[in-house]
Amino acid sequence: MPELRSGARRSKRLGDLQPPSQPVDQAENWVPPVQNQPRRRVGGRGRGRAAAVAKGPSPEVPNRPTAAGRGRGVRLIDLDPERCQVLPGAPPLATAHPAFNQVEVLANKDIAMGGRSADKIVGVEEEASTTPIPEKVQVGNSPVYRIERKLGKGGFGQVYVGRRESGGSGRIGPDAVEVALKFEHRNSKSCNYSPPYEWQVYNSLNGCYGIPWVHYKGCQGDFYILVMDMLGPSLWDVWNTLGQSMSPNMAACIAVEAISILEKLHLKGFVHGDVKPENFLLGQRGSADEKKLYLIDLGLASRWKDAHSGQHVDYDQRPDVFRGTVRYASVHAHLGRIGSRRDDLESLAYTLIFLIKGRLPWQGYQGDNKSFLVCKKKMATSPELMCCFCPAPFKQFLEVVTNMKFDEEPNYAKLISIFESLIEPCTALRPIRIDGALKVGQKRGRLVINLEEDEQPKKKVRLGSPATQWISIYNARRPMKQRYHYNVADSRLHQHVDKGNEDGLFISCVASAANLWALIMDAGTGFSSQVYELSTVFLHKDWIMEQWEKNYYINSIAGANIGSSLVVMSKGTPYTQQSYKVSESFPFKWINKKWKEGFHVTSMTTSGSRWGVVMSRNAGFSDQVVELDFLYPSEGIHRRWESGYRITSMAATGDQAAFILSIPKRKMTDETQETLRTSAFPSTHVKVGIS
Ligand SMILES: Nc1ncnc2c1ncn2[C@@H]1O[C@H](COP(=O)(O)OP(=O)(O)OP(=O)(O)O)[C@@H](O)[C@H]1O
């Protein structure tokens, strides 16, 4: 079904884009000198400019055109304002083809028998680990503590036992005989000569259920020091002690108690951001709390709710930002989306499955693109496969939390009740205390099953299976003469273009699937002349440079899987400068850099796994964002639509689909846009849309 959105709001990042005086970048492709070309428009009936939306090819398209259709799938559509009630505008083309197939496992070191903990993306804290820890500590109004054995070390901090020099009573609290002291070097990335970020979070969360108490904090010598309740082993330690596995019964107790801890943390407006076995600690061995669960390490916590307005933070995606631990991170975290409550729950699901099975399907990847490969595998692994040998509630939990919306409020009681059947009714026999979970929906010491019978089944977003599709983007525009050709073989391309040109049409959009071409030609492009090249080289540099010299600018590109490409360049575009990049992965960093120089993405394509992105100055956009995903990013697109963005380019490899959404500089007259996903070129929809 098409998805419709309208309405526009102003962009927040307006004004971010400052073109510098010297934009030519040698590292990329040549950028022609700035030229202030007059904007010429071709007259005629259609004066709307066709939105240029590129396509993404697919390495294998199961819906191959039939022999009869191949090369003959030509449809001519002349849009006559007198006859047409519907205003279809340019139907640009796109295919997205996330085919999740085998992932080559490059190495299998991650799960060495000793049980190595998961890698966390943090800086290397050289100085912090070489500077000697003081022998005695006294910060704030704290008693004096003598430093004893090391309890643990993370990416930022080192944690030691501190024993009171004199006095003290009990095992926890401000007077405890022994405390845990977390040292962070003042040069550490999390400090940068000011108190660690984690301190701010503790200020808001101290006393929160399931979070260890911080009693004192202060600076001594080169270290920022937190004095907190000493806890016992982590779930990682317990898992190792139990022979690198854990009973589903114990994991279920952990599940319900962890959900209740996250609920309390979320209620305070925070998400943890790094849920994993290493960050869940039990109380001290031999103490009354030895079966009680705690969540530590608030260094990556962030607010999901604005402290002042109380509103949910805005959705955003920065594909170059990753925070967390690769093994347990949510797919949204991998993709650089702003953290929200669903992410903690997704990481908890991976934590639980890891504890039971002792392994997650994405362990073992190494190298620079480890995070990409892990994310791809997370998307491609079905809940059935991931939870085989786990009791059904774990799969159910995984399914619920991986299908949550960005700002959805988790139904914690319901999530807890999923595990009810696995919880030992006798309190004394439970391996983990579940006091918090019982309070969430208590009924005589049992977890209440709170399933609403009439609730609609939720649409599953993450299917874990391949999807091959055309994604077409339609803009509602004034009527204009337009025609499309699809399944066009190389040899037939010229005749269609020549015929179109004869009739006063120019190419506004090109795409490719199964090494055949699709093109939209229309009368409303505003171009004054056009050249194109079908080359066996992907984005043929010499030809493009030659045309740039003649003041043609790229307005549309398409790449075929076999490496050939179709580049269309025109005069009469609004562009004053252009640059393009070919890369093996989606070049977000480059795009981000060019945004700051005043360029915007104006066309995009792929060829196999290679991306080709064209950015232009004076593209008529005030702001631009990227939505990058392994599947069609429905939620992200809807959110951007609601904020006034419209899709202006798209492309996809066999793995990923990228959408560029922009806010036009000129006020939009509530331009409606819809996307359509079909398994083959949507010729029927196009016809229905215009008749
Ligand atoms: N209160 C505590 N009681 C006992 N041990 C603790 C306590 N806090 C932390 N630890 C131990 O110290 C280790 C490091 O602590 P923490 O995770 O807070 O540091 P970090 O540098 O922020 O770690 P990360 O790299 O995960 O961010 C923990 O894994 C745990 O083993």
Automatic annotation (TrEMBL):
Record keywords: ATP-binding, Kinase, Nucleotide-binding, Transferase
Domain of life of the organism encoding this protein: Eukaryota
Name of the top EC class for this enzyme: transferase
Basic residues: compositionally biased ranges: 38-48
Domain Protein kinase positions: 145-423
Region span, Disordered: 1-71
Entry keyword Metal-binding: no
EC number: 2.7.11.1
Stored Pfam families: DUF7477 (PF24289), Pkinase (PF00069)
Binding site for ATP: 182
InterPro entries (UniProt xref): CK1_Ser-Thr_kinase (IPR050235), DUF7477 (IPR055900), Kinase-like_dom_sf (IPR011009), Prot_kinase_dom (IPR000719), Protein_kinase_ATP_BS (IPR017441), Ser/Thr_kinase_AS (IPR008271)
Family membership noted in the UniProt record: Belongs to the protein kinase superfamily. CK1 Ser/Thr protein kinase family. Casein kinase I subfamily.
Name this polypeptide is given: non-specific serine/threonine protein kinase
Organism: Hibiscus sabdariffa (roselle)
